[in-house]
Amino acid sequence: MDCKSSETVVGPRSEDRLPASAAAAVKIVIVGGFGVGKTTLVRSVSEIRPLTTEETMTQASAGVDDTAGVERKTATTVAMDFGRISLSDELVLYLFGTPGQQRFWFLWNGLFDGALGAVVLVDTRRLEVSFDVIGRLEEAGVPFVVAVNTFPDATSYPTEELRAALDLPEKVPIVECDARLRESSRDVLISLMRYLRSHALAPEPM
Amino acid sequence: MNDSDEEWDEGTPERLYVITGGRVDSSDRAGLDLVTLIVARQDPQVGMQPELASILRVCRSPLSVAEISAYLVLPPSLISVLLTDLLADGRVEARTPDPSLPDIALIEAVIHGLQKL
Ligand SMILES: Nc1nc2c(ncn2[C@@H]2O[C@H](COP(=O)(O)OP(=O)(O)OP(=O)(O)O)[C@@H](O)[C@H]2O)c(=O)[nH]1
Ligand SMILES: [Mg+2]
């Protein structure tokens, strides 16, 4: 991590500044395995060039230091990409693209707290990497939709086959997308929001 | 900042300890979220801690905690500690969604905004 002194800190370019009227912001988290297109999706819909925020995570390492009898701690720096969409003069949406190492996502203090929901991006060639994260989102009570990022050499499966393979309840939407395309990525976000709306109107456990 | 910096791994806890004066990130972070919008209410003052001055400078227009973290190249947990001071004496203000706003109104506003893209 490279710390900048006050004089060298470069703030947002003038075109990246939010209007003074910006009154509140909300967030959506994009999760999924290595190289599934999370950063691509964030970049394609973001109005700013994606930025990176880095958190230092301290984890108690497995095992105990024999001589001192104290727990060892290891510090790891985890970087996350994020982008921004101004929804109106007042409301701003941020999209966080998690890094590939799943074990850090739920350690990141406050990443999922207060999030509207999550998008689980999957590559049908490597579905198994999504099992763990889907389970963790369900446990944490974070509502999500599944978006299948269509790579040219990947076989296309019927939605119901994917649903069975991922063991997803009927109500969780599964959509297809091309994360490189702005409209397609935007439609994934709209699917998530419509799902949240249907849930808000007819509450039942997610 | 100074020469001894080079000997440090910049992200190490020791370094962060110095910037925050040894305070620890409280679990609730003064209610600050990654997407809380921060707006400066005054200009940086001479002699101010450089990180605080930087925050006031980049927040001349509203900016999220995550963006402040990205521009200052400091972790959001540390930015939150620094912001707690600035908030306490009113040098910045924090903006979050109105908690009295029903979820459905917020959801509708997000859908409406996305459809206009
Ligand atoms: N054909 C095709 N390629 C894509 C698509 N989305 C992403 N890619 C490519 O896949 C590669 C990985 O995409 P990234 O967006 O970096 O994936 P990521 O999920 O952020 O990866 P990590 O952060 O490393 O976990 C890049 O070379 C992209 O150009 C897509 O929809 N179609
Ligand atoms: Mg990425």
Automatic annotation (TrEMBL), chain A:
<dbReference type="InterPro" id="IPR027417">
    <property type="entry name" value="P-loop_NTPase"/>
</dbReference>
<keyword id="KW-0547">Nucleotide-binding</keyword>
<dbReference type="InterPro" id="IPR004130">
    <property type="entry name" value="Gpn"/>
</dbReference>
<comment type="similarity">
    <text>Belongs to the GPN-loop GTPase family.</text>
</comment>
<dbReference type="InterPro" id="IPR052705">
    <property type="entry name" value="Gliding_Motility_GTPase"/>
</dbReference>
<protein>
    <submittedName>
        <fullName>ATP/GTP-binding protein</fullName>
    </submittedName>
</protein>
<keyword id="KW-0378">Hydrolase</keyword>
<dbReference type="Pfam" id="PF03029">
    <property type="entry name" value="ATP_bind_1"/>
</dbReference>
<keyword id="KW-0342">GTP-binding</keyword>
TrEMBL record, chain B:
<protein>
    <submittedName>
        <fullName>DUF742 domain-containing protein</fullName>
    </submittedName>
</protein>
<dbReference type="InterPro" id="IPR007995">
    <property type="entry name" value="DUF742"/>
</dbReference>
<dbReference type="Pfam" id="PF05331">
    <property type="entry name" value="DUF742"/>
</dbReference>
